[in-house]
Amino acid sequence: MDKKILIVVDMQKDFIDGSLGSREAAAIVPEVRKKIEACEKAGYEIVFTLDTHGDDYLDTQEGRKLPVKHCIKGTDGWRLHEEFEHVQGKRFEKPAFGSVECGQYVAGGGYALAELVGLCTDICVISNAMVIKALAPELPVLVDGRCCAGVTPDSHKNALEAMKMCQIEVTGE
Length: 173
Hints:
The protein is an alpha/beta fold. The longest helix is centred in the first third of the chain and has 19 residues, at about 25-40. A six-stranded parallel sheet has the order 3-2-1-4-5-6. It is built from six helices and six strands, in the order E-H-H-E-H-E-H-E-H-E-H-E. The protein is globular, with a radius of gyration of 15 Å. Strand 2 (about 45-50), helix 3 (about 60-65) and strand 3 form a beta-alpha-beta unit.
């Protein structure tokens, strides 16, 4: 059987109902839950990325450009949303949009397919998809658009189109 992996990107409280939460992010929670359950049944490995910042966030480049404290390690907002906390799987803490560690893990894992879902389509989902594509150019990378939300609906659509141009398969638009 071919190994497959589902990367659940940043489904954390601050992005869903916390400091950077949105209706669109909250709306995908049930779809992401269904996707995880279906992938578990199909034998996929499930992993998570966690946007992870320190108390000095506002002094970082990102913090100066987005001066909203979020996903500060150890806070309630940093935790996975309660729908996902119990799901077993490796967690990759990342201080930036894309996780090089997760990308290397996927590239070296002998997978036949990598699928991504999560938040935000236009920042961290696209960044992680591109890291994986750069490190494993022959690996089919798929993004389920129904299980992603962007900062805005328009930026979500733009990110899906950009990923298609980079040979990332987009489903569920």
